[in-house]
């Protein structure tokens, strides 16, 4: 049964959805822009800093969901200007092992919420120990 969560450090989503959806194997994180992050307006327009703020917050959201950035298997990046892809890539690459980048799509979207220039969505594989702990907490049998 999926578990629908919102990160308590972020504002409630402006759309009808959840920040995080967990199933038995994956954590699905909704698209995040710098304007979703308290204080993010201070870096709006600086593509490096927008990307860095979003990636740092995604790391925290994954931790909240019991995952690590290294568990990421897929990323979708939306940019208002695809010409900024190399600048975004430079920051993005800092967060992953250079031999284990997740599968990824990068597209240009003419407009993102609240004037942001970068939106990132990701999916991560949940570590087995997290699932086992949740099963134990719910009184379910685990595969250990």
Automatic annotation (TrEMBL):
<dbReference type="InterPro" id="IPR006175">
    <property type="entry name" value="YjgF/YER057c/UK114"/>
</dbReference>
<dbReference type="InterPro" id="IPR035959">
    <property type="entry name" value="RutC-like_sf"/>
</dbReference>
<feature type="compositionally biased region" description="Basic and acidic residues">
    <location>
        <begin position="129"/>
        <end position="144"/>
    </location>
</feature>
<dbReference type="Pfam" id="PF01042">
    <property type="entry name" value="Ribonuc_L-PSP"/>
</dbReference>
<protein>
    <submittedName>
        <fullName>RidA family protein</fullName>
    </submittedName>
</protein>
<feature type="region of interest" description="Disordered">
    <location>
        <begin position="124"/>
        <end position="144"/>
    </location>
</feature>
<comment type="similarity">
    <text>Belongs to the RutC family.</text>
</comment>
<dbReference type="GO" id="GO:0005829">
    <property type="term" value="C:cytosol"/>
</dbReference>
<dbReference type="GO" id="GO:0019239">
    <property type="term" value="F:deaminase activity"/>
</dbReference>
């Amino acid at each position: 049964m999926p578990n629908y969560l919102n990160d308590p450090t972020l504002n409630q989503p402006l759309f009808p959805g959840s920040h995080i959806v967990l199933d038995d194997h994956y954590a699905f994180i909704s698209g995040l822009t710098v304007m979703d992050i308290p204080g993010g307006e201070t870096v709006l327009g600086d593509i490096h800093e927008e990307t860095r703020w979003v990636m740092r917050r995604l790391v925290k959201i994954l931790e909240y969901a019991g995952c690590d950035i290294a568990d990421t298997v897929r990323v979708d990046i939306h940019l208002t200007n695809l010409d900024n892809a190399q600048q975004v890539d430079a920051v993005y690459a800092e967060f992953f092992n250079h031999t284990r980048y997740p599968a990824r799509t990068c597209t240009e979207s003419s407009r993102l919420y609240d004037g942001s220039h970068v939106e990132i969505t990701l999916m991560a594989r949940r570590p087995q120990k997290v699932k086992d702990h949740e099963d134990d907490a719910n009184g379910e049998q685990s595969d250990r």
